[in-house]
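Methods: holo model generation. Sequences were used as deposited, without trimming of termini or removal of tags, and paired with ligand SMILES retrieved from the corresponding compound records. Each pair was processed once, and we did not select among multiple samples. The sequence and zinc ion SMILES for this entry were:
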Amino acid sequence: MERLGKNHGGYHGEMIDIRAVLRDVERSAQLHGWASECFHESNGFKWLALHRKPEAGSKEPGARIYISTGIHGDEPAGPLAALKLVHENRWPKNAEIFLLPCLNPAGFTLNRRGNSDGIDLNRDYRNPQTAEIRAHIAWLERQPNFDLYLCLHEDWESHGFYLYEQNPDSKPSLAEQIVEAVQKVCPIDPSDNIEGRPAKNGIIRPNIRPHERPDWPEAFYLISQKSRQGYTLEAPSDFPLATRINALMAGVNAALAGAPISGSAC
Ligand SMILES: [Zn+2]
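and the model returned the structure below.
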């Protein structure tokens, strides 16, 4: 599969009608029995948190999984993957899912990474200054802990799909099975250094020390406060939008299939 070659110095691909996408994802979620909560509202945009309970009659306890996307307004594959995942409704029966389909709706109307003030929301999780992230953290504080988190992104510079793994307790890794599933639908970035970090077969296992870094991304907050295992999935923006959506969906479905159940997430 060839790169499109249209992203130079930033993302220059498709834009999406984020209001329509959010309307569709909320409608589809409600059709499938999910609860929908709006935890923040500004300039006519709603910040949605969708919640799917395990199906009635599930005998085994399932994993509690948090999925978020759309924090960068120039990464349309994430909210579209969220919509398609809800629409397809192929979740493990006993899984409890918390899905935040778009954390930066204003950014999508501008096709830019930051919010309407140009602030990168994914650097605001340590001492949050923005109303959006304060509201998001307040929502997170009301939720139980998660067995697994998945943050869906795109990278306009990358040569293929890659992921970051956070797994401080060395639980069985899901990274290889995620990459194996994604490579059936999207090239994997073969680089041995991605975003300044050593990588192998599209997998980055950064040794993070959150207390040493002032500008926490969402994943740092999640691994510090809410979960002991998680993955940031990065689809390559220089490939067709359908390929990027398929990559994120394949990654999520592979992670769901192997999700750990801690039994202590309460
Ligand atoms: Zn991103």
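The pocket of zinc ion is lined by residues 72, 75, 153 (CB under 6 Å).
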